[in-house]
Amino acid sequence: MALLTYxxxxxxxxxxxxVLDALTRAGVDAPSSCRAGTCQxxxxxxxxxxxxxxxxxxxxxxxxxxxFFLPCVCRPTQPLTIxxxxxAGARLEATLRAIEPLSHDVVxxxxxxxxxxxxxxxxxxxxxxxxxxxxxxxxxxxxxDPYLELHVRLHPGGRMSRRLMAEMKPGHRLHVAGPRxxxxxxxxxxxxxxxxIGAGTGLAPLYGVLRDALRRGHRGPIRLYHGARDRKGxxxxxxxxxxxxxxxxxxxxxxxxxxxxxxxxxxxxLALAEERARVGQTAYFLCGGEGLVKRLKRDLFxxxxxxxxIRSDVFSAG
Length: 318
Ligand SMILES: Cc1cc2nc3c(=O)[nH]c(=O)nc-3n(C[C@H](O)[C@H](O)[C@H](O)COP(=O)(O)OP(=O)(O)OC[C@H]3O[C@@H](n4cnc5c(N)ncnc54)[C@H](O)[C@@H]3O)c2cc1C
Prior knowledge:
The chain is an alpha/beta fold. It folds into three domains: 4-87, Ubiquitin-like (UB roll) (Roll); 89-180, Translation factors (Elongation Factor Tu (Ef-tu), domain 3); 194-314, Rossmann fold. The chain has helices spanning 19-25, 61-65, 159-166, 203-215, 237-246, 267-275, 290-302; strands spanning 4-6, 9-11, 44-48, 68-69, 80-83, 92-101, 106-113, 123-129, 132-137, 148-153, 173-180, 194-199, 222-228, 250-256, 283-288, 310-314. It binds flavin-adenine dinucleotide. Flavin-adenine dinucleotide binds at residues 33, 39, 41, 123, 134-137, 150-153, 155, 157-161, 201, 204, 289, 313, 315-318. Flavin-adenine dinucleotide (FAD) binds at residues 33, 39, 41, 123, 134-137, 150-153, 155, 157-161, 201, 204, 289, 313, 315-318.
């Protein structure tokens, strides 16, 4: 019997090879991003056999029980039959209810689906058709919002971006799958300081985490840092400023790289200068492009933060 079977097809697996590498070599178009067991982009499900425990690190108890695992860090020694996560029945029909601009290149999508459990800050896969699927983070709260809320940056030339601009109007039918990811408010003390740091649409999961923290009665200080290339990119700034003014424990710090912007500066440098003195107590949530997230992770770690205190999502392309 083959050690690895993908759907009904045996796949060659070299000793010590990861499932992701074997799938890629076999020509399976398996999604991946960090390749280190962190981002969960490559999530698959074992339909027969038990995945090695280290390939389930970071997944929820429910996901583990359902056989979900991360192929990028999975080196099976027992026969395993696997399927993409959608084959587990997680793919849901969805209807676009609203699409509205948040800035010159970011839109807010409101999407209706059969309700499913998720935590704000996790991400879903948006499926326009079998060939066009992208991950987007959840800014909505399942107990407060009737729809899923996504903040989507429209990349010129991007395939999903083009589809959204050209075709998607309220009433448009699509599918979503998920949720995935561990970048959500969990394992945090109510009095612990939180630092939520992101750039661009990295705000989407942080906005979700912030709302969830407040709803759960978080009492410790929450500092939300949002960076953008220019002032126009600091979307939701008025709403976040108003929120910070109405809540004693919430601070909103925004910075744009454009030197002419009223809040000029590099958000990572700004956040690091501010946070350096507080590492050790603070829980961090870092979201956005790879450069920003990697740099913040490294510098916070070098400043003494524990990796366990850092949750992150890298918005890699593809
Ligand atoms: C876990 C996760 C969560 C994500 N959450 C969000 C979110 O909440 N909001 C959001 O807008 N995006 C998010 N993304 C990114 C998103 O999945 C897509 O990659 C992105 O929207 C581009 O899709 P596209 O089809 O328009 O462009 P594609 O056709 O995939 O790419 C076309 C070109 O656009 C450029 N490009 C694409 N993506 C990026 C990027 N992220 N940074 C810089 N250049 C890029 C590249 O030059 C690329 O070659 C997330 C990604 C991951 C992995």
